[in-house]
């Protein structure tokens, strides 16, 4: 594999993890977003699914975001009759965003991004040393 391919593969990984970080940030920003009317559904947590894509120029598979979906499941409910989104029984549906899970996803995405960045920097250094040796 030549060094240009390594750079492109690492860049694809960084791009995928960057998208994942954006989704995590959106989830954390909306962790308190309830519905606007009584009984309305609140913000639903978004998820990222990765997939492989054949990069014909490289002749190899690279990672990409194949889908940004939503997490299934019930919404937790809290009793708050004074809230504008409270149903007839006084319960408000809360988003299904768990800050701990989001922080763990963020750390994992950061580590993956950093690993791809390290490969990119190492490859760039190898290219620089090769050019210097050819002078």
Task: Write structural notes for this entry.
The protein has helices at 3-29, 99-134, and strands at 46-55, 60-70, 77-79, 91-93. The chain is α+β, with helices and mostly antiparallel strands and 135 residues long. Helix 1 packs antiparallel against helix 2 (99-134). The mean pLDDT is 92.
Question: What's the helix and strand layout?
Answer:
Elements (H helix, E strand, L loop, with lengths): L2 H27 L16 E10 L4 E11 L6 E3 L11 E3 L5 H36 L1
Antiparallel strand pairs: 1-2, 3-4
Helix pairs in contact: 1-2
Keywords:
135 residues; two-stranded antiparallel ribbon; 2 helices; 4 strands
Q: How helical, in percent, are the residues?
A: 40-55%
**pLDDT average, as an integer?**
92
Low-confidence stretches: none
**In total, how many beta strands?**
4
**Main sheet, how many strands, which sense, barrel?**
2 strands, antiparallel
* Count of helical stretches: 2
What is the subunit arrangement here? single chain
* Beta-strand residue percentage: 15-25%
What is the element string, with H for helices and E for strands? HEEEEH
């Amino acid at each position: 594999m030549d060094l240009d391919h390594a750079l492109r593969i690492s860049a694809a990984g960084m791009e995928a993890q960057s998208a994942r970080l954006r989704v995590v940030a959106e989830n954390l920003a909306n962790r308190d977003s309830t519905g606007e009317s009584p009984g309305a559904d609140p913000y639903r947590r978004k998820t990222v699914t990765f997939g492989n894509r054949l990069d014909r120029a490289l002749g190899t598979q690279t990672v990409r975001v194949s889908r940004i979906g939503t997490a299934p499941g019930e919404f937790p409910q809290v009793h708050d009759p004074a809230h504008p989104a409270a149903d007839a029984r006084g319960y408000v549906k809360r988003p299904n965003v768990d800050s701990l899970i989001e922080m763990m996803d963020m750390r994992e995405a950061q580590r993956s991004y950093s690993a791809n960045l390290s490969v990119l920097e190492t490859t760039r250094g190898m290219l620089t040393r090769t050019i210097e040796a050819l002078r």
